[in-house]
């Protein structure tokens, strides 16, 4: 496989879009036409059809999608089967897949997570995964080893988008907030695994809801590709994520889930109606892309 960050950089350039569409299906917000029955199997089938509909709407428009495992796991085995189909369909449509599971555990168990989610024989086949750093460097090591073996990607939680994240992430340790310590470790791993584009296989999650810290981390972590959630439904605006990009418009992909996949429920896209929900999704992805491109240095993308 080509180096993860190099292929992400070339997809961002090709589509002129740093937008990641988050696939976070929620039963209550699905188009009525997909809500048939109510068993776990019915819901899983609806999530499968909805997610594939989203993929078909945004393929060729954005470089990547981020299925959120939580919504599929919630439905048990049928949900997991749907998640597998969604990942395969996304990859078949030349979309990079960030599998959002935020996993980790002690090193020996992390090895199983890393093999299962990212390894050569992974039944999921994602291009990258999200992981938590709080069990220490030995817990990240199996993911890093597996990512290097497969040229796959990792996004380590550094500064999350939620308000409660500050409780521990902003705690000062030796005069620096904890997220800066985590950021230094991630940057070290990123530098060691850098590809031709200058960015490493190991990336960082940094929320759009903390624009100052986002800019500060961009300066401090020059080899680290950022996954920036919190744009759209959580209140982050395009101006807030401007500091995430480097001078050539690379270095970050920005996620929007609800704001894009449920666009047909937003007043701005009411003209599409439920019947044309996929057109609303595509238009929302195009609009978010345009806003993000305006936030990159002039003419960069
Ligand atoms: O890792 C993530 O993607 C993530 C990290 C974070 O700090 N904040 C955050 O919102 N996320 C995820 O990004 C998505 C945001 O969804 P929306 O708020 O609907 O755009 C959800 O799947 C969250 O789980």
UniProtKB/TrEMBL annotation:
Coiled coil: none
Biological process according to GO: 'de novo' pyrimidine nucleobase biosynthetic process; 'de novo' UMP biosynthetic process
Any one GO molecular-function label of the UniProt entry: orotidine-5'-phosphate decarboxylase activity
UniProt keyword terms in alphabetical order: Decarboxylase, Lyase, Pyrimidine biosynthesis
Entry-linked SMART domains: OMPdecase (SM00934)
PANTHER family attached to this UniProt entry: OROTIDINE 5'-PHOSPHATE DECARBOXYLASE
Family classification: Belongs to the OMP decarboxylase family. Type 2 subfamily.
Entry protein name: Orotidine 5'-phosphate decarboxylase
């Amino acid at each position: 496989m080509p180096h993860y960050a190099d292929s992400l950089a070339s997809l961002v350039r090709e589509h002129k879009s740093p937008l990641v569409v988050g696939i976070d299906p929620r039963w209550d917000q699905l188009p009525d036409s997909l809500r048939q029955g109510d068993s776990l199997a019915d819901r899983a089938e609806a999530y499968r059809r909805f997610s594939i509909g989203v993929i078909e709407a945004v393929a060729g428009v954005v470089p990547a999608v981020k299925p959120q495992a939580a919504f599929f796991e919630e439905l048990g085995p049928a949900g997991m089967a749907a998640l597998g189909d969604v990942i395969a369909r996304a990859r078949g449509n030349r979309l990079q897949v960030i599998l959002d599971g935020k996993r980790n555990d002690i090193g020996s168990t992390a090895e199983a997570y890393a093999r299962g989610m990212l390894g050569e024989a992974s039944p999921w086949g994602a291009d990258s995964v999200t992981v938590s750093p709080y069990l220490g460097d030995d817990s990240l090591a199996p993911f890093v080893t597996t990512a290097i073996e497969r040229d796959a990607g990792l996004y380590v939680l550094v500064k999350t988008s939620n308000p409660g994240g500050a409780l521990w992430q902003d705690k000062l340790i030796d005069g620096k907030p904890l997220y800066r310590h985590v950021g230094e470790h991630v940057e070290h791993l990123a530098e060691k695994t850098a590809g031709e584009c200058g960015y490493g296989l190991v990336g960082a999650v940094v929320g759009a809801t903390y624009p100052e810290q986002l800019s500060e981390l961009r300066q401090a972590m020059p080899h680290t590709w950022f996954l920036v959630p919190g744009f759209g439904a959580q209140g982050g605006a395009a101006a807030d994520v401007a500091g995430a990009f480097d001078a050539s418009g690379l270095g970050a992909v920005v996620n929007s889930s609800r704001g894009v996949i449920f666009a047909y429920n937003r007043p701005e896209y009411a003209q599409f109606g439920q019947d044309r929900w996929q057109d609303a999704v595509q238009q929302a992805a195009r609009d978010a892309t345009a806003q993000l491109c305006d936030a990159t240095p002039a003419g960069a993308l």
